[in-house]
Every structure is written in structure tokens, then in C-alpha cells.
UniProtKB/TrEMBL annotation:
Keywords: Membrane, Transmembrane, Transmembrane helix. The keyword Nucleotide-binding does not apply. InterPro entries: NrsF. It holds the Pfam family NrsF. The chain crosses the membrane at residues 26-47, 59-79, 91-111, 131-150, 157-178, 190-211. This is Anti-sigma-F factor NrsF. It comes from Pseudomonas abietaniphila. The keyword Transmembrane applies.
Amino acid sequence: MKTDDLISMLAGGVAPVDRGLLAKRFSLAVVLAALGSLLLMLAVFGVRPDLPVMTRTPLFWGKVALPLCLAIGSLWMVTRLARPGMSAGSGRWVVSAGVLVVWLAGLYALLQAEPDTRVAMIFGKTWRTCAFNITLLAIPGFISIFWALRGMAPTRLGLAGACGGLLAGSLATIAYCLHCPEMEIPFWGVWYLLGLLLSTAIGALIGPRVLRW
């Protein structure tokens, strides 16, 4: 067999690369994560009874904006890190901006409040369970997002896992906003972010084990 014939035979069985595979996998993963977190929230916690009233207030949408901003930034990072040799990119600035805005708004709210109400604004009524509830609701996201990552070729496994965990936690927090009764910005700046930090840490820990290829 001639060399040219051998090359033609080997090349003939190569399937074309699906350039849209990354977008397809992560689109499906995000939809499944968001839907799974929502259904889990409904089954375990339920929707707050005054939700129709609260959705007509800007403060409620400000609460949703925090995890939404972090979800956008972490999705940006995780889709880059799903490819070999890629950095996290500019998504980290989106995440940092979301955290900075909520901290500045929380600090402003505390400075404007009466001194004897500030502790209550930070701790609310659910501080003992908030972060753990968010982590629980992130379970569907961990499953679907890490499935999407495993189908690609990440090389920075710890960082990819951390960003995947942050994405799962962010989507879980959006779902949790439909249940959580807390409406003080300082509360979100502490306990929501603690739940997101837990999800990120879990992702960083399991990433090198689950995403190894």
C-alpha cells in the first residue's frame, strides 16, 4: 500500500468536529441546573407566600441580580476553562463587580440604618440555614455542569471545578430567592455569598477528581 493510500484511508474515518458542541452542552447543563434547583426548592422549601407582591418591588429584583451576575460571570469562565490551556478570562471581573456592588450597597444601607437595627439587618431570621440551603439546591447544578465539563477537555481542573461550583451555586441562589424571606442587602452580602463560597469550594475540591481525563 502506498503512503498516500494509507493516509487517505486513515483520514477517511475521521468525523468532522462539532464546533457548536461546547455551546450545546453548557446550554443544556444550565437549563437542567436551573430547572433542577427550582424543582428542588419547590419540593423542600416552597415559594414565599407574598412572592407576587414582592416581584413588583425593585428590591426583589436587586436580590435576584446578585446571583444572576455571578451566574453570567461564572458561565463565561467555565466555558473557557472547558477547553484545554485556556484561562478564566474576563468573567472574573463580572463576578468581582457583582460582589463589590452588593457589599457597597450593604455598607450604605448599614450606615443609613439606626445603630440598634444593624445586627438584625446582617443576620436576619435565617442566617443559620441560608448558606446550607443554597448548597443543597446546588446539587442538580453540580451534576449537570460537571457532566458538561467532563465531555470537554479542561486542563486546569481545580479552577474549572471551582467555576463550575460557583455556577451551580449561583443558579441555586436564583431559585432560593423565590423562597427566602430576607430583604436586607447586608444579609445577601454575607449569607448568600457564603453559600456561593461553599459551592465554589466544593467544586474546587471535587474538580481534580471528577474532571480528570
